[in-house]
Amino acid sequence: MQNLDTWPIKRIARIAGILSLGSGIPDGFSISILKKVLVRDDAAATAANILKFESIFRAGIVAELFALVVFAASLVLLYVVFKPASRRGALLFLIICIMGATLQSLDVLGDIFALSFLKGGAATAALPIAQTQAMAYLFLRMHLLIYTVALAFTGFGSLFLAYTATQATFIPRVSGYFMVLDGLGYITHSFGTLWAPTLIVHLQPFVPYATSILGTGALMIWLIVKGVNTDRWHEQNKVAVT
Fold first, then answer.
1. Cα–Cα distance for residue pair 10/102, rounded to 1 Å
2. C-alpha atoms less than 13 angstroms from C-alpha of 183 in its C-beta half-sphere
3. Within its chain, how far is the Cα of 28 from the centroid?
4. d(CA 28, CA 130)
5. What percent of the residues of the chain are helix, what percent strand, and what percent coil, each to the nearest 5?
6. Helices 87-105/54-82 angle, 10° precision
7. At what angle do helices 174-195 and 129-167 cross, to 10 degrees?
């Protein structure tokens, strides 16, 4: 297998863009399943949906973990692409987004615990049905809260990528300014949901979905279609390592 260092940078950029956008497909599937089974303020109905759609519910768990692996791979490749522009900025982007992805991976435990309470067999047989349903509902709500907190890390990571992109000479610098919208969108959604949930709903779906499309979506599509200016990338990389 070829060493990553021997790959053309344009290929790395395109693969990074594909993986970044591609990770949204299984992640979106997982979110859609969670919304399908979770009935707000109704533990019994939520429990019934989990058991009714158990196979799909389990598929959602696997899909989210797969999405996070793909996303993590894209982060590493994006670091390789953007480190000539600002090594510190690219590194902070990588570290903070990996922290967010790691935190997000923990939300699947809420799904697993919810299913365990409903299908625990002898381990939960002594508990009243209403109590097991309430616990399952509580763990699914925990999933949403963990996901919300993880998005804050993604938002701050996007701001560091935005700064780094504005320092790059090998892509249009305007893409970095669009990434600011992406970062602020995630941060607004995360902090708004935790602080003022009744107000943040009025900003959806513009925040964080439309801001993400304008920021990450536009940058990744550029990397997929155009890649990077190879000559300028090597020039900036040569300056960065001297």
1. 28
2. 18
3. 10
4. 30
5. 85, 0, 15
6. 170
7. 150
Q: What span, in angstroms and rounded, lies between the C-alpha atoms of 163 and 231?
A: 21
Are the C-beta atoms of 77 and 34 separated by less than 8 Å?
A: no
Which residues, other chains included, contact 27 with Cβ-Cβ below 8 Å and sequence gap of 6+?
A: 63, 64, 67, 68, 71
DSSP state of 41: T
The Cα 181–Cα 215 span in angstroms is: 6
Q: How many CA atoms lie within 13 A of 192 on its CB side?
A: 16
Contact of 194 with 172, CB cutoff 8 Å: no
Distance CA 92, CA 163 (A): 11
Q: Whole-number mean pLDDT of the chain?
A: 93
Which residues 6+ apart lie within 8 Å of 67 measured at CB? Answer: 23, 24, 25, 26, 27, 30
In this structure, are residues 110 and 139 in contact, taking their beta carbons and an 8 Å threshold?
yes
* Three-class secondary structure of residue 1 per DSSP: coil
Locus of tokens 């990074």: 16
pTM summary value: 0.92
Residue 213 CA to residue 166 CA, distance in Å, equals: 18
Distance CA 180, CA 36 (A): 32
Q: What is the pLDDT of residues 50-83, one digit of tens each?
A: 999 999 999 999 999 999 999 999 999 999 999 9
